[in-house]
Design brief:
By secondary structure, this protein is of the alpha+beta class. The protein contains one helix and seven strands. The relative contact order is 0.20.
């Protein structure tokens, strides 16, 4: 989950109820693995999760796949998450998700109109 969480960092996982929020970093099970990514969108029961350094979201998941929310992450005894500017950082990653989504949409639209 670079650049927010370095590899081999220690994370503290908190249980979640229906209070999971867009911007939270969540741990979920996917194909026999545990994945730590950010919740970037929600459409009813469907959750859209994306790693901070990825350009496309993960396949949509449902709430019951979520194991918990990352409450704290440390690396070599240094607090990495949440950071001092976490609110700003979270807004940045969510805005990035939507801008990449718009770019993919426009690319598809543009390509389909200009095919020979």
């Amino acid at each position: 989950m670079l650049p927010t969480l370095p590899p081999d960092c220690t994370i503290e996982i908190h249980a979640v109820g229906a209070d999971v929020q867009i911007g939270d970093i969540v741990v979920f099970a996917y194909q026999d693995a545990l994945v730590v990514h950010r919740l970037v969108a929600r459409r009813g029961n469907i959750l859209i999760i994306q790693g901070d350094n990825r350009t496309v979201p993960d396949p949509p998941i449902q709430f019951h796949h979520i194991i918990g929310r990352v409450g704290k992450a440390t690396y070599q005894q240094t607090l990495k998450y949440p950071c001092k500017f976490e609110r700003f950082v979270t807004h940045f990653w969510i805005a990035r998700y939507y801008s990449l989504k718009l770019r993919r949409f426009l690319d598809r639209k543009f390509r389909s109109k200009h095919r020979i």
